[in-house]
Design brief:
The complex is a heterodimer. Chain A is an alpha+beta fold. Chain A is built from 11 helices and 7 strands. Chain A has 3 domains: 2-89, no CATH class; 103-157, no CATH class; 166-314, Histidine kinase-like ATPase, C-terminal domain (Heat Shock Protein 90), CATH 3.30.565. In chain A, 59% of the residues lie in helices and 14% in strands. In chain A, β4 (230-238) and β5 (241-248) form a beta hairpin. In chain A, α6 (170-180) packs across α8. The longest helix of chain A has 62 residues, at 57-118. Chain B is of the alpha/beta class. Chain B has one domain: Rossmann fold (3-Layer(aba) Sandwich), CATH 3.40.50. Chain B contains 5 helices and 5 strands. Chain B has helices at 11-22, 34-44, 60-69, 87-95, 109-122; strands at residues 2-7, 26-31, 48-51, 78-82, 100-103. In chain B, β3 (48-51), α3 (60-69) and β4 form a beta-alpha-beta unit. In chain B, α2 runs parallel beside α3 (60-69). Chain B starts with a strand and ends with a helix. In chain B, 33% of the residues are buried. The chains are: A alpha+beta, B alpha/beta. The interface between A and B is medium-sized, with 21 and 18 residues.
Amino acid sequence: MNLFKRILSELNIVAQCRKYKLSLWQCPQFLFLVMGIIIVASILIAYAFGTRYIEDPLTIALIIQLLAGVLFIIAAIITRSFERLAEASRLKSEFISIVSHQLRSPLSNLKWTIELLMSGKLGMIEERQIEYFKIIKENSNRMHELVSDLLTVSRIESAKLPFKEEDFSMQELVRNLINEYKPLISAYNVKVVFNESNDLPHVFSDPSRIKLVIENLLDNAVRYTKQRGEIKIELSQKNSNIYFSIKDNGVGIPEKDKKYIFQKFFRSENALKHQTKGSGLGLYISKAIIKKAKGKIGFQSTENKGSTFWFTLPLKKVNFYQSSRTSCCK
Amino acid sequence: MKKILFIEDESALQKTVGEALKQEDCDIISAIDGEIGLRLAQEKKPDLIILDLVLPKMHGFDVLKKLKGSAETKNIPVIILTNLEGVEDIDKAIELGATTYLVKAQYDLKEVVEKIKKILAGS
Protein backbone atom coordinates (compact mmCIF):
# COMPACT_ATOMS: atom_id res chain seq x y z
CA MET A 1 0.00 0.00 0.00
CA ASN A 2 2.82 2.35 0.97
CA LEU A 3 4.64 1.49 -2.25
CA PHE A 4 1.47 2.19 -4.21
CA LYS A 5 1.07 5.58 -2.49
CA ARG A 6 4.72 6.38 -3.17
CA ILE A 7 4.34 5.52 -6.86
CA LEU A 8 1.23 7.71 -7.04
CA SER A 9 3.01 10.62 -5.39
CA GLU A 10 5.97 10.30 -7.78
CA LEU A 11 3.51 10.35 -10.69
CA ASN A 12 1.82 13.49 -9.36
CA ILE A 13 3.65 15.93 -11.60
CA VAL A 14 2.02 19.07 -10.17
CA ALA A 15 3.11 18.15 -6.62
CA GLN A 16 6.62 17.32 -7.80
CA CYS A 17 6.88 20.68 -9.61
CA ARG A 18 5.60 22.50 -6.55
CA LYS A 19 8.56 21.06 -4.61
CA TYR A 20 10.91 23.01 -6.90
CA LYS A 21 8.65 26.09 -6.76
CA LEU A 22 8.88 26.38 -10.53
CA SER A 23 6.40 27.00 -13.29
CA LEU A 24 5.36 23.87 -15.23
CA TRP A 25 7.47 24.81 -18.23
CA GLN A 26 10.63 24.90 -16.08
CA CYS A 27 9.77 21.70 -14.22
CA PRO A 28 11.82 18.62 -15.24
CA GLN A 29 8.98 16.09 -14.69
CA PHE A 30 6.50 18.07 -16.78
CA LEU A 31 9.08 18.55 -19.54
CA PHE A 32 9.73 14.79 -19.58
CA LEU A 33 6.00 14.18 -20.03
CA VAL A 34 5.86 16.72 -22.87
CA MET A 35 8.90 15.10 -24.53
CA GLY A 36 7.20 11.72 -24.17
CA ILE A 37 4.14 13.02 -26.02
CA ILE A 38 6.41 14.52 -28.73
CA ILE A 39 8.21 11.15 -29.09
CA VAL A 40 4.94 9.22 -29.47
CA ALA A 41 3.59 11.81 -31.95
CA SER A 42 6.86 11.69 -33.94
CA ILE A 43 6.70 7.89 -34.09
CA LEU A 44 3.12 7.98 -35.41
CA ILE A 45 3.95 10.69 -38.00
CA ALA A 46 7.10 8.81 -39.07
CA TYR A 47 5.05 5.62 -39.44
CA ALA A 48 2.37 7.41 -41.49
CA PHE A 49 4.97 8.94 -43.85
CA GLY A 50 7.05 5.77 -43.88
CA THR A 51 4.20 3.51 -45.00
CA ARG A 52 3.40 5.99 -47.81
CA TYR A 53 6.92 6.23 -49.30
CA ILE A 54 8.82 3.11 -48.15
CA GLU A 55 7.73 -0.39 -49.09
CA ASP A 56 9.93 -2.47 -46.82
CA PRO A 57 8.33 -2.64 -43.32
CA LEU A 58 11.66 -3.57 -41.75
CA THR A 59 13.18 -0.31 -43.02
CA ILE A 60 10.23 1.64 -41.60
CA ALA A 61 10.63 -0.09 -38.23
CA LEU A 62 14.38 0.67 -38.16
CA ILE A 63 13.83 4.36 -39.03
CA ILE A 64 11.15 4.68 -36.33
CA GLN A 65 13.38 3.00 -33.74
CA LEU A 66 16.27 5.28 -34.64
CA LEU A 67 14.05 8.36 -34.43
CA ALA A 68 12.57 7.27 -31.09
CA GLY A 69 16.05 6.52 -29.73
CA VAL A 70 17.44 9.91 -30.73
CA LEU A 71 14.42 11.79 -29.37
CA PHE A 72 14.54 9.81 -26.14
CA ILE A 73 18.23 10.67 -25.60
CA ILE A 74 17.51 14.37 -26.29
CA ALA A 75 14.58 14.28 -23.84
CA ALA A 76 16.71 12.63 -21.16
CA ILE A 77 19.51 15.21 -21.58
CA ILE A 78 17.08 18.16 -21.46
CA THR A 79 15.19 16.94 -18.41
CA ARG A 80 18.36 15.96 -16.52
CA SER A 81 19.77 19.48 -17.09
CA PHE A 82 16.56 21.10 -15.92
CA GLU A 83 16.46 18.77 -12.92
CA ARG A 84 19.96 19.82 -11.88
CA LEU A 85 19.13 23.49 -12.40
CA ALA A 86 15.88 23.21 -10.45
CA GLU A 87 17.53 21.39 -7.54
CA ALA A 88 20.41 23.89 -7.46
CA SER A 89 17.94 26.77 -7.44
CA ARG A 90 15.91 25.21 -4.60
CA LEU A 91 19.03 24.54 -2.52
CA LYS A 92 20.28 28.06 -3.12
CA SER A 93 16.99 29.60 -1.96
CA GLU A 94 16.91 27.36 1.10
CA PHE A 95 20.54 28.18 1.91
CA ILE A 96 19.94 31.93 1.64
CA SER A 97 16.89 31.67 3.86
CA ILE A 98 18.63 29.64 6.59
CA VAL A 99 21.86 31.64 6.53
CA SER A 100 20.04 34.98 6.47
CA HIS A 101 17.99 34.03 9.50
CA GLN A 102 21.08 32.79 11.39
CA LEU A 103 22.94 35.99 10.52
CA ARG A 104 20.05 38.19 11.60
CA SER A 105 20.13 37.07 15.22
CA PRO A 106 23.67 38.26 16.07
CA LEU A 107 23.10 41.39 13.97
CA SER A 108 19.95 42.26 15.93
CA ASN A 109 21.88 41.68 19.16
CA LEU A 110 24.65 43.99 17.91
CA LYS A 111 22.20 46.68 16.80
CA TRP A 112 20.36 46.81 20.11
CA THR A 113 23.54 46.68 22.20
CA ILE A 114 24.95 49.66 20.29
CA GLU A 115 21.64 51.47 20.71
CA LEU A 116 21.72 50.89 24.46
CA LEU A 117 25.35 52.02 24.75
CA MET A 118 24.80 55.16 22.66
CA SER A 119 21.66 56.09 24.62
CA GLY A 120 23.92 57.12 27.51
CA LYS A 121 21.73 55.15 29.94
CA LEU A 122 24.71 52.98 30.90
CA GLY A 123 26.93 55.99 31.52
CA MET A 124 28.15 58.90 29.40
CA ILE A 125 30.36 58.11 26.43
CA GLU A 126 33.39 60.25 25.75
CA GLU A 127 33.25 62.59 22.76
CA ARG A 128 36.06 60.78 20.92
CA GLN A 129 34.38 57.40 21.50
CA ILE A 130 31.11 58.51 19.87
CA GLU A 131 32.69 58.56 16.40
CA TYR A 132 33.79 54.93 16.75
CA PHE A 133 30.43 53.82 18.09
CA LYS A 134 28.89 55.48 15.01
CA ILE A 135 31.21 53.43 12.78
CA ILE A 136 30.09 50.20 14.50
CA LYS A 137 26.45 51.28 14.20
CA GLU A 138 26.74 52.20 10.51
CA ASN A 139 28.49 48.97 9.54
CA SER A 140 26.13 46.87 11.61
CA ASN A 141 23.24 48.58 9.76
CA ARG A 142 24.90 47.86 6.42
CA MET A 143 25.18 44.15 7.23
CA HIS A 144 21.62 44.19 8.51
CA GLU A 145 20.35 45.69 5.25
CA LEU A 146 22.31 43.23 3.14
CA VAL A 147 20.93 40.26 5.06
CA SER A 148 17.40 41.71 4.81
CA ASP A 149 17.86 42.15 1.07
CA LEU A 150 19.10 38.55 0.73
CA LEU A 151 16.09 37.28 2.67
CA THR A 152 13.75 39.35 0.48
CA VAL A 153 15.40 37.94 -2.65
CA SER A 154 14.99 34.41 -1.31
CA ARG A 155 11.29 35.07 -0.68
CA ILE A 156 10.79 36.61 -4.12
CA GLU A 157 12.37 33.56 -5.74
CA SER A 158 10.27 31.13 -3.78
CA ALA A 159 7.14 33.23 -4.45
CA LYS A 160 6.61 33.75 -0.72
CA LEU A 161 6.98 37.53 -0.47
CA PRO A 162 4.42 38.77 2.11
CA PHE A 163 2.22 41.49 0.66
CA LYS A 164 -0.29 43.13 2.98
CA GLU A 165 -2.56 45.50 1.06
CA GLU A 166 -4.24 48.53 2.54
CA ASP A 167 -5.52 51.95 1.55
CA PHE A 168 -2.87 54.65 1.75
CA SER A 169 -1.74 57.99 0.33
CA MET A 170 1.35 57.97 -1.91
CA GLN A 171 1.76 61.72 -1.32
CA GLU A 172 2.10 61.20 2.41
CA LEU A 173 4.44 58.24 1.93
CA VAL A 174 6.77 60.19 -0.38
CA ARG A 175 6.75 63.34 1.77
CA ASN A 176 7.60 61.37 4.93
CA LEU A 177 10.35 59.49 3.14
CA ILE A 178 11.97 62.68 1.83
CA ASN A 179 11.95 63.96 5.42
CA GLU A 180 13.58 60.77 6.70
CA TYR A 181 16.26 61.08 4.01
CA LYS A 182 17.11 64.71 4.84
CA PRO A 183 20.37 63.78 6.67
CA LEU A 184 21.62 61.71 3.71
CA ILE A 185 20.48 64.32 1.20
CA SER A 186 22.34 67.06 3.03
CA ALA A 187 25.41 64.83 3.55
CA TYR A 188 25.61 64.34 -0.24
CA ASN A 189 24.90 68.02 -0.80
CA VAL A 190 22.12 67.47 -3.34
CA LYS A 191 18.82 69.30 -3.80
CA VAL A 192 15.55 67.35 -3.85
CA VAL A 193 12.48 68.91 -5.45
CA PHE A 194 9.09 67.21 -5.04
CA ASN A 195 6.37 68.04 -7.59
CA GLU A 196 3.07 66.54 -6.57
CA SER A 197 -0.37 66.91 -8.13
CA ASN A 198 -3.08 68.00 -5.72
CA ASP A 199 -5.60 65.58 -4.19
CA LEU A 200 -4.27 62.41 -5.65
CA PRO A 201 -6.49 59.40 -5.00
CA HIS A 202 -5.28 56.67 -2.68
CA VAL A 203 -3.76 53.41 -3.78
CA PHE A 204 -4.56 49.95 -2.41
CA SER A 205 -1.25 48.19 -1.97
CA ASP A 206 1.38 47.32 0.64
CA PRO A 207 2.75 50.66 1.90
CA SER A 208 5.84 49.13 3.54
CA ARG A 209 6.83 47.40 0.27
CA ILE A 210 6.17 50.49 -1.86
CA LYS A 211 8.16 52.53 0.65
CA LEU A 212 11.05 50.11 0.13
CA VAL A 213 10.88 50.66 -3.64
CA ILE A 214 10.95 54.46 -3.29
CA GLU A 215 13.76 54.18 -0.72
CA ASN A 216 15.84 52.14 -3.19
CA LEU A 217 15.23 54.63 -6.01
CA LEU A 218 15.85 57.69 -3.82
CA ASP A 219 18.94 56.12 -2.27
CA ASN A 220 20.38 55.40 -5.74
CA ALA A 221 19.52 58.89 -7.00
CA VAL A 222 21.23 60.56 -4.03
CA ARG A 223 24.31 58.34 -4.01
CA TYR A 224 24.94 58.45 -7.75
CA THR A 225 24.39 62.17 -8.15
CA LYS A 226 27.43 64.40 -8.07
CA GLN A 227 27.81 67.07 -5.44
CA ARG A 228 25.40 70.02 -5.77
CA GLY A 229 23.27 67.96 -8.16
CA GLU A 230 19.48 68.02 -8.30
CA ILE A 231 16.87 65.30 -7.90
CA LYS A 232 13.30 65.87 -9.11
CA ILE A 233 10.52 63.66 -7.82
CA GLU A 234 7.17 63.69 -9.53
CA LEU A 235 3.91 62.17 -8.35
CA SER A 236 0.80 62.43 -10.50
CA GLN A 237 -2.18 60.55 -11.83
CA LYS A 238 -2.04 59.12 -15.33
CA ASN A 239 -5.33 57.53 -16.39
CA SER A 240 -6.13 54.91 -13.78
CA ASN A 241 -2.63 54.79 -12.32
CA ILE A 242 -0.46 56.71 -9.92
CA TYR A 243 2.77 57.70 -11.66
CA PHE A 244 5.96 58.14 -9.65
CA SER A 245 9.24 59.25 -11.20
CA ILE A 246 12.61 60.30 -9.84
CA LYS A 247 15.06 62.15 -12.07
CA ASP A 248 18.70 62.82 -11.24
CA ASN A 249 21.58 64.44 -13.07
CA GLY A 250 24.09 61.88 -11.86
CA VAL A 251 26.38 59.28 -13.40
CA GLY A 252 23.70 57.66 -15.60
CA ILE A 253 23.79 54.12 -16.96
CA PRO A 254 26.02 53.05 -19.88
CA GLU A 255 24.11 51.67 -22.89
CA LYS A 256 25.72 48.23 -22.63
CA ASP A 257 24.56 47.84 -19.01
CA LYS A 258 20.93 48.89 -19.44
CA LYS A 259 19.56 45.40 -20.10
CA TYR A 260 21.11 44.08 -16.87
CA ILE A 261 20.02 46.86 -14.55
CA PHE A 262 17.17 44.95 -12.87
CA GLN A 263 19.21 41.76 -12.44
CA LYS A 264 20.34 40.45 -9.06
CA PHE A 265 23.74 41.64 -7.84
CA PHE A 266 24.33 43.70 -10.99
CA ARG A 267 26.11 47.02 -10.59
CA SER A 268 27.28 48.87 -13.65
CA GLU A 269 30.98 49.75 -13.88
CA ASN A 270 30.53 53.49 -13.62
CA ALA A 271 28.35 53.04 -10.51
CA LEU A 272 31.04 50.88 -8.91
CA LYS A 273 33.66 53.54 -9.59
CA HIS A 274 31.45 56.21 -8.07
CA GLN A 275 30.18 54.29 -5.06
CA THR A 276 31.69 50.98 -3.95
CA LYS A 277 28.99 50.26 -1.32
CA GLY A 278 25.82 48.53 -2.50
CA SER A 279 24.64 44.95 -2.89
CA GLY A 280 23.14 45.24 -6.37
CA LEU A 281 19.83 43.89 -5.08
CA GLY A 282 17.79 47.08 -4.71
CA LEU A 283 16.43 47.32 -8.26
CA TYR A 284 15.81 43.56 -8.53
CA ILE A 285 13.72 43.72 -5.34
CA SER A 286 11.96 46.92 -6.49
CA LYS A 287 10.93 45.36 -9.79
CA ALA A 288 9.57 42.25 -8.03
CA ILE A 289 7.53 44.39 -5.63
CA ILE A 290 6.05 46.59 -8.38
CA LYS A 291 5.19 43.49 -10.40
CA LYS A 292 3.45 41.99 -7.37
CA ALA A 293 1.57 45.29 -6.93
CA LYS A 294 0.39 44.93 -10.56
CA GLY A 295 2.30 48.05 -11.60
CA LYS A 296 5.07 48.73 -14.10
CA ILE A 297 8.64 49.98 -13.60
CA GLY A 298 11.19 51.35 -16.03
CA PHE A 299 13.87 53.94 -16.64
CA GLN A 300 15.52 56.26 -19.15
CA SER A 301 19.18 57.09 -18.77
CA THR A 302 22.18 58.70 -20.48
CA GLU A 303 25.70 58.06 -19.21
CA ASN A 304 27.17 61.09 -17.41
CA LYS A 305 23.89 63.00 -17.83
CA GLY A 306 21.57 61.22 -15.41
CA SER A 307 18.66 58.83 -15.07
CA THR A 308 14.92 58.88 -14.60
CA PHE A 309 13.41 55.87 -12.87
CA TRP A 310 9.62 55.56 -12.81
CA PHE A 311 6.88 53.21 -11.73
CA THR A 312 3.10 53.11 -11.88
CA LEU A 313 0.61 51.63 -9.44
CA PRO A 314 -3.06 50.99 -10.15
CA LEU A 315 -5.36 53.32 -8.27
CA LYS A 316 -7.67 51.99 -5.58
CA LYS A 317 -10.84 50.80 -7.29
CA VAL A 318 -14.02 52.35 -5.88
CA ASN A 319 -16.88 49.92 -6.41
CA PHE A 320 -20.00 51.04 -8.25
CA TYR A 321 -22.25 50.60 -5.16
CA GLN A 322 -20.02 52.87 -3.02
CA SER A 323 -19.69 55.60 -5.65
CA SER A 324 -23.44 55.64 -6.47
CA ARG A 325 -24.37 55.84 -2.77
CA THR A 326 -22.16 58.87 -2.22
CA SER A 327 -23.63 60.76 -5.17
CA CYS A 328 -27.24 59.99 -4.35
CA CYS A 329 -29.75 61.13 -1.80
CA LYS A 330 -28.21 64.20 -0.18
CA MET B 1 6.87 47.24 39.80
CA LYS B 2 5.77 45.16 36.81
CA LYS B 3 7.14 41.61 36.48
CA ILE B 4 8.24 40.44 33.04
CA LEU B 5 9.24 36.86 32.23
CA PHE B 6 11.72 36.85 29.32
CA ILE B 7 12.07 33.44 27.64
CA GLU B 8 15.10 33.76 25.35
CA ASP B 9 18.15 31.53 24.88
CA GLU B 10 20.52 34.27 23.63
CA SER B 11 22.36 35.66 26.64
CA ALA B 12 23.31 38.85 24.75
CA LEU B 13 19.63 39.61 24.18
CA GLN B 14 18.71 38.71 27.76
CA LYS B 15 21.29 41.27 28.86
CA THR B 16 20.38 44.08 26.43
CA VAL B 17 16.60 43.85 26.52
CA GLY B 18 16.70 43.04 30.23
CA GLU B 19 18.75 46.16 30.95
CA ALA B 20 16.51 48.37 28.79
CA LEU B 21 13.41 47.12 30.66
CA LYS B 22 15.09 47.47 34.07
CA GLN B 23 15.63 51.15 33.14
CA GLU B 24 11.81 51.34 32.88
CA ASP B 25 11.42 49.98 36.42
CA CYS B 26 10.51 46.46 35.42
CA ASP B 27 11.50 43.35 37.31
CA ILE B 28 12.96 40.86 34.79
CA ILE B 29 12.78 37.11 35.28
CA SER B 30 15.06 35.27 32.81
CA ALA B 31 14.48 31.82 31.32
CA ILE B 32 16.92 30.33 28.79
CA ASP B 33 14.57 27.65 27.48
CA GLY B 34 10.87 26.83 27.24
CA GLU B 35 10.79 24.26 30.05
CA ILE B 36 12.32 26.70 32.55
CA GLY B 37 10.03 29.40 31.17
CA LEU B 38 6.87 27.34 31.79
CA ARG B 39 7.94 26.50 35.33
CA LEU B 40 8.75 30.16 36.14
CA ALA B 41 5.47 31.35 34.58
CA GLN B 42 3.56 29.07 36.98
CA GLU B 43 5.69 30.02 40.01
CA LYS B 44 6.13 33.76 39.55
CA LYS B 45 2.87 34.74 37.75
CA PRO B 46 4.44 37.58 35.72
CA ASP B 47 2.45 40.53 34.32
CA LEU B 48 3.84 39.89 30.84
CA ILE B 49 5.78 37.15 29.03
CA ILE B 50 8.23 37.87 26.19
CA LEU B 51 8.79 34.69 24.23
CA ASP B 52 11.31 33.79 21.53
CA LEU B 53 10.35 31.07 19.05
CA VAL B 54 13.61 29.31 18.23
CA LEU B 55 14.44 27.82 21.64
CA PRO B 56 16.31 24.73 22.83
CA LYS B 57 14.31 21.74 24.18
CA MET B 58 10.89 23.17 23.30
CA HIS B 59 9.80 25.37 20.40
CA GLY B 60 8.21 28.72 21.31
CA PHE B 61 4.87 27.66 19.80
CA ASP B 62 4.72 24.63 22.11
CA VAL B 63 5.48 26.90 25.07
CA LEU B 64 2.73 29.28 23.95
CA LYS B 65 0.23 26.41 23.61
CA LYS B 66 0.99 25.24 27.14
CA LEU B 67 0.82 28.78 28.56
CA LYS B 68 -2.59 29.37 26.99
CA GLY B 69 -3.74 25.89 27.97
CA SER B 70 -3.15 26.39 31.69
CA ALA B 71 -5.72 28.20 33.84
CA GLU B 72 -2.96 29.87 35.85
CA THR B 73 -1.12 31.40 32.91
CA LYS B 74 -3.67 31.72 30.10
CA ASN B 75 -4.50 35.34 30.86
CA ILE B 76 -0.90 36.59 30.93
CA PRO B 77 -0.25 38.59 27.74
CA VAL B 78 2.50 37.08 25.58
CA ILE B 79 4.69 39.05 23.18
CA ILE B 80 6.53 36.97 20.58
CA LEU B 81 10.00 38.44 19.97
CA THR B 82 11.80 36.65 17.16
CA ASN B 83 13.61 37.04 13.86
CA LEU B 84 11.26 34.66 12.06
CA GLU B 85 9.04 36.82 9.87
CA GLY B 86 7.09 34.34 7.76
CA VAL B 87 3.38 35.05 7.46
CA GLU B 88 2.61 31.49 8.53
CA ASP B 89 4.53 32.00 11.82
CA ILE B 90 2.79 35.31 12.53
CA ASP B 91 -0.66 33.85 11.83
CA LYS B 92 0.06 30.78 13.97
CA ALA B 93 1.25 32.90 16.90
CA ILE B 94 -1.88 35.06 16.86
CA GLU B 95 -4.05 31.97 16.49
CA LEU B 96 -2.39 30.41 19.55
CA GLY B 97 -3.16 33.53 21.58
CA ALA B 98 -0.09 35.76 21.38
CA THR B 99 -0.92 39.42 22.02
CA THR B 100 1.55 40.70 19.48
CA TYR B 101 4.38 39.49 17.24
CA LEU B 102 7.56 41.56 16.94
CA VAL B 103 10.32 40.80 14.41
CA LYS B 104 13.58 41.96 16.05
CA ALA B 105 15.18 43.05 12.77
CA GLN B 106 12.31 45.46 12.06
CA TYR B 107 12.48 47.51 15.27
CA ASP B 108 14.89 49.60 17.29
CA LEU B 109 15.24 48.61 20.94
CA LYS B 110 13.47 51.82 21.94
CA GLU B 111 10.43 50.91 19.80
CA VAL B 112 10.24 47.41 21.30
CA VAL B 113 10.38 48.85 24.83
CA GLU B 114 7.56 51.30 23.96
CA LYS B 115 5.36 48.48 22.66
CA ILE B 116 6.05 46.42 25.80
CA LYS B 117 5.16 49.40 28.02
CA LYS B 118 1.90 49.93 26.12
CA ILE B 119 0.85 46.31 26.62
CA LEU B 120 1.82 46.44 30.30
CA ALA B 121 -0.23 49.60 30.74
CA GLY B 122 -3.23 47.90 29.17
CA SER B 123 -2.96 44.68 31.23
